[in-house]
Amino acid sequence: MILTATLGLPMLGALVLAVSRRWTETTARLFAVGVSLLPVLLLAWAWLQFDTQGALFQFVEEVPWVPSLGMAYRLGVDGIALAIATMSALVFAASIAYPINTQNQPRQYYAWMLFLQSVSLGVFLALDLLLFYVFFDLSLVGMFFLIGRWGHGQAQHSAFKFFLYTFCGSLLLLLAFIGLYLSVEPHTFDMRVLIEQQPLAGAGVSAGLIFLALMLGFAIKAPIVPVHTWLPQAHVDAPGPASAVLAGVLLKMGTYGILRIPYSMMGETFARYALIIALFAVVSILYGALVAFGQGNLKRRIAYTSINHMGYTVLGIAVAGALFQDAVYAREMALIGATVEMVAHGLITGALFLICGSFWQRTEEYDLDSYGGLLRQAPLLATFAILASFASLGLPGLAGFVAEFHIFAGTFAVYPWLAVIGVLGILITAALFLQMLQKLFFGAMPQRWAKFDDLRPAEWGVLGVLSASFVIIGIAPQFLLTLIEASATLLVGAR
Amino acid sequence: MPIGDVLPEISLTLGAVIIVLFAAFARQHQHVWAAVLALLTIGLCIGLTFTQWDGPPRLTFSGVWALDGMALSSKLVVLIAGALVIAMSPEWMQTDRRHAEYYALMLFALLGVIMMASASDTMELVVGVLLSSVASYPLAAYHRTWAPALEAGMKYFLMGALTNTLLAIGVVVLFGLTGNTGYPEIAQGLSVGHDSLALTIATASIILGLSFKLAAFPAHAWMPDVAQGSPAPVAAFLTVIPKIGAAVALARFVSLMPPDVAWRAIVALISVTTMTLGNVAALRQTDVRRLLGWSSVSQSGYALMAIVVMGTSDQALPALVFFLASYAIANLAAFAVVTYLRGRTALESYQGLARQAPIATTILIASLLSLVGIPPLIGFFGKLMLFSVTIEGGYAWLAFVAAANTVVSLFYYLRIVARMMFSDTRPTVHVLVGQWARTTMIVSGLLLIVGGLGAEMLMEFTDSIGFVR
């Protein structure tokens, strides 16, 4: 019941907001923040109860939905899903609590946010392919309305592009899911059965096509170069909190999907193409970093670093899926790294995009060159921006380092050359973040920002929580690593 | 004569006759009772159909009338859809002098569609197609003083006259070829041996004739005009109901073909052309009703996918009926909203509607998303089953084309959604006063969600249906 409550409470909250006619902005906001915290608490509780020696999937719930199609409402988590879901719930709570101009439609804004929280968590908690697809698609609908209604610039255009582009990916996934469904007897969408039976092992062309469709679908969502082009625009025009959610949570659906479906259900095919996937990942790492370096727009720059970071994650998963029987430990390490990267990126980039939101609310300006010298004017903002940037570039002692260390340590054992090239990405990332900080906070301050306000309590409170979490993961990652390790060991076949 | 086997159809006919008589004597403000009579008739007809449900699949009346799962389930879908259309009409029609006759025509058109779905004889098929066409022409042009309605009716009539003639020619040639009009005998005759040129002509003519009712390429051109110009409830009727009968009739007909006729390739080709054409044409429409008309064309293309894999995938026919039912609900919900909004049609005028008419907007958005196939609305399960049978039947490329088309269709549906949601203008909204249209709109909106969550019930219902052999 924990997992159903995790999904159900925000959904109920969204419904209540949608029908409550008379609530003021403050009531709606307080209510939404309160409701959005419930999943965090519930998932934390589940985390405490999770048995690291137990079965792969725990807290399983199953209610038949469409039995004649082999579809059911099946929920359950392994350590990886639990870690990502908890991070997602936290990023959502933070984004909802972050103050924003709701353009006189507070109820609608918070209702959509809660709806999106519910369905996004659903993606990570689903144990049924079709249920996964249901939540996956609904998250597009939610994000479409958030960008289109509360975005700025060419918001409608971006919302359209986002929905259409990622919907292409969804439909490829749907076709592939049907392929997987038809490959088992009796036909079922149950992920546990599909993981256990590996139905497409040795199936030749059809396995290859299904694998291609799955990887393309998830690559669009992650996104991996060259199907990333929807991302920068959606990010730039989305409101700050929606950007934080988009980067922190929605991108993870792509990488988590790769891990949960092609990696787990088609191990043999995955191993065959692991090197190609790793190559694409390295291209993403370098391309994302280089293009980010070239951006003069604050939000665009951070958006492109997401492509770079998702590249690390995919590299980790590809390494974990490569067929090197003797390198079990290295592969496990890479898988753990990939998962920690997802969690770390969610928290760090979530914070960075919220900071972007604060900039926009004050100045409606993203051009880096127009800023300068804000360190004195807004010391709190500067502190959090510097902390998050350092975490993002992988400074030891912060969460990003833990992730990247694991990934590259694993990669060195399996694809040493790719690791060498990939590490260059970290170098470029460091340069781009340092340059960004320099342009924002140091040098002479242009006169027009003389009235630039520092963070308000609501803002620094939220950023404080997010920063604390990635600092804690950086300093004492053990609590997270044990949880992930429990599942990673099973998934790479070490236990 | 086994009169009991056609009791539902007899009740429909009697109901229509009673309404015509009633219309002759009642005053105009009482005409709304004709709607009640029509609904009662349909209710009775549904009840009688249920009593036939448990019987074994069989042919009756000397083999011209099929009583099998396909006929009965599509009959139910047609009747329920017809009831929804009738329930959304009274306020729209009440100022019309001939309000009550409207329902009689509706019942006759329904009867024609049911005959199409149940016909197991080419003559019976022709009668069904003609009956539904003849009753539909006046419906399309019901507002006879309004030029666009006349134009729509005229276009519909000319197209219909041509294709109905072709259908008759096809039937005659087929009769010449096999010496029979009954389906089992035709199948028998064709399997023994045939003149392939004559068979090609006959098949092509009959498929063309049915493509008119299906609004599939190449006889689709009437659909956008009718959707735009005819009264909104009639547009709802014509975009949905004849399609159901025609799809079943087409499936029944092509299943007779001997294996050396490449009917799968032909239907697949029509399917791809229809869905692509419908979608591409809908992209730039600036009129919501016209847009829905084109989208309806593209949906016919999807439905044909199930016919392509008939026989190679055992769930093809259930998928067909399920898809048609899900499409019917979604499209009727969309037109119910348009009706409720007094036929509001220019895309511009939908600007900012979300704030002025939140419930209507929500239902319209839900119906559009259901037409795309966004879960958990009922349209998703329809599409899912279609894709599933198509892939299972070995036509993965067709499923891929349909998926690509679905992405295209998302674009134009979203254009309507964006207009309504992302604008601060506050339009003046006129709605139909009264409860009929409003209630129908809400009921069909609820059906979208309830049908999705309760898809299992519908599936059990259509699970093992097929054609009588």
TrEMBL record, chain B:
GO CC annotation terms, alphabetical: endomembrane system; plasma membrane
Transmembrane is among the record's keywords: yes
Catalysed reaction equations from the record: a quinone + NADH + 5 H(+)(in) = a quinol + NAD(+) + 4 H(+)(out)
Keywords associated with the record: Cell membrane, Membrane, NAD, Quinone, Translocase, Transmembrane, Transmembrane helix, Transport, Ubiquinone
GO-annotated biological processes: ATP synthesis coupled electron transport
Chief location bin: membrane
Membrane spanning stretches: 6-25, 32-53, 65-88, 100-119, 125-144, 156-177, 197-222, 234-255, 261-282, 291-310, 316-341, 362-382, 394-414, 435-455
GO molecular function: NADH dehydrogenase (quinone) (non-electrogenic) activity; NADH dehydrogenase (ubiquinone) activity; quinone binding
Protein name: NADH-quinone oxidoreductase subunit N
Native source species: Vreelandella aquamarina
Gene behind this protein: nuoN
